[in-house]
Recover the amino acids of this structure.
């Protein structure tokens, strides 16, 4: 599916699940300190949750090696992704960290550029930033190394293979859990997880993915053609439902 469709799905899923995040008993969902979320900080946590879901819904496609024409079609979604990443940086209170900004610059380069070499350079900058944070003990080393391995996989594997597989998903989620699992009571990690997993599910019904990578067989259901009318309809519907959820005070 198109990147903007993935983002719309992630946003809508976050909007309708946010109330559950703040009303279930502690420990029911499996992230930490949910019961300690205070009303004074709830809006910040909601923003972190929804923004993280939007970012997570786009990350698997960092393995994409599309043509210039395809990149132009997705330009709006790509710019929205960079904005979401920057918003998440502010929510996570990392605006004073030059290394965090380096990671954002790398992601922006990987998302917005039209050439595969530039995409790899962007991912390389992100990995370098993560490793620096790890070896200066600002981020757990295990998490940074796992995310670095995921980034290397995104750099050198074909589209809808490693990052869209069970193995790639587990590596990413494990790395994120170690790195940011306790941030804002776990809502950032859960948001990233929901967005990422829903991306894989959406691509499963849009020509499938190499779910069992490194085995090369593609698994999926050809219900939706990427860029086709159904794809665009799903994206538009999810966007409208997300806006309706906000207007009705679903958060």
């Amino acid at each position: 599916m198109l990147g903007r469709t993935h983002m719309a799905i992630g946003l809508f899923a976050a909007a309708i699940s946010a109330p559950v995040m703040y009303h279930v008993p502690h420990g029911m969902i499996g992230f930490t300190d949910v019961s300690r979320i205070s009303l004074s900080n709830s809006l910040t946590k909601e923003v972190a949750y929804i923004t993280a879901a939007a970012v997570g819904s786009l990350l698997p496609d960092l393995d994409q090696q599309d043509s210039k024409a395809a990149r132009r079609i997705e330009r709006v979604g790509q710019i929205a992704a960079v904005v979401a990443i920057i918003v998440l940086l502010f929510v996570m209170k990392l605006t004073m960290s030059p290394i965090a900004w380096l990671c954002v610059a790398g992601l922006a380069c990987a998302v917005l550029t039209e050439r595969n070499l530039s995409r790899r350079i962007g991912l390389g900058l992100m990995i370098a930033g993560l490793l620096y944070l790890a070896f200066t003990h600002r981020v757990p080393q295990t998490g940074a190394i796992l995310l670095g391995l995921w980034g290397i996989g995104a750099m050198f594997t074909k589209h809808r293979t490693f990052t869209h597989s069970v193995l790639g998903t587990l590596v990413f989620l494990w790395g994120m859990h170690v790195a940011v699992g306790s941030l804002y009571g776990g809502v950032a990690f859960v948001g990233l997880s929901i967005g990422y997993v829903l991306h894989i599910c959406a691509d499963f019904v849009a020509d499938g993915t190499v779910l069992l990578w490194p085995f090369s067989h593609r698994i999926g259901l050809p219900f939706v053609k990427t860029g086709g009318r159904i794809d665009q309809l799903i994206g538009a519907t999810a966007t409208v439902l997300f806006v309706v959820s906000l207007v009705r005070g679903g958060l």
Residues 165 and 211 are 4 Å apart (CA to CA).
